[in-house]
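User: Can you help me understand a structure? I only have the sequence.
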Amino acid sequence: MKGKEVLRIKNKRTKVIVGWLCIILVLFVGVLLTNNQAEKHETVTEMMRDAVMHDVNKISLFGIMDVNPGLISAAIVTTIMLTFALIIRLFAIPKFKRIPGKFQLILEEMVGLFDKFAKKNSPHRNGFLGAYIFGAGMYIFFGTLFELLGFQAITTTGHSITLPAPLSDINGAIALGCLSYTVILSGGILTNGLRGLGTALKDFSMPLSMSFRLFGSMLSGVLVTELVYYSLYLSFGIPIIIGVLFTLVHALVQTYVLIMLTASSYGEVSKPRKNEIYRQTPAVRRS
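Assistant: Let's start by predicting it. Here is the structure, written out as tokens:
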């Protein structure tokens, strides 16, 4: 009986392996026989230029004006996140218990992680900082993963495109960088007044560096994936793997980088400044 059971399991595994090999073979033959260039309405040069400049593939916003696809992505991501947050606040949080369940535990760990990060980098003023880096971090992370959903939109030229991550648009990256810098400025002003403002203004290049770091990281994943897609023998399957890997790495790395820079800079400018004490030199002390 045991021998028959083992043989049955082996036969089942063999059938599964053979089935997957057949599927892979069929897909491979389909790739070779399909003219994939017919679906591409622009060259790789035009694609890379539009990924940076956003001057070709625009979407009509209710017939009022033509906007970049990144703006549509940002509106969708923001709406989804706010709706999800509202649902949690109205239906989940009131049911939280002293002994947490799985969802409550996950949510508390996420909030606690950002709260500890804020307290570590800004021990003097961290209430709003923890809330901000949590919101900004979640927006970067889920906004980056948004492109994996593959939502389609029709451009003004009649072509179908996949909506990109909001921060792959330079305008979205600049907006988030300037918002983070505004939070840093507010921390300095609330704690040290004009002196805190002066301290924060010393790093006036910070919003620019934040913006281009976000934009460059997001754009690199898009360009690498598209370059692989435009290659004849790599245009099926491999771009999916590369796109997912790049997207996940960018989501994690850029979330950490932005909250680290924001929290450390906020903590520096919000540190209370004590009156400087005149220190005499050893020669003056001896006299």
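Now, to help you interpret it: The chain has one domain: 39-46+53-272. The two ends are 103 Å apart (CA to CA). Let me know which part you'd like to focus on.
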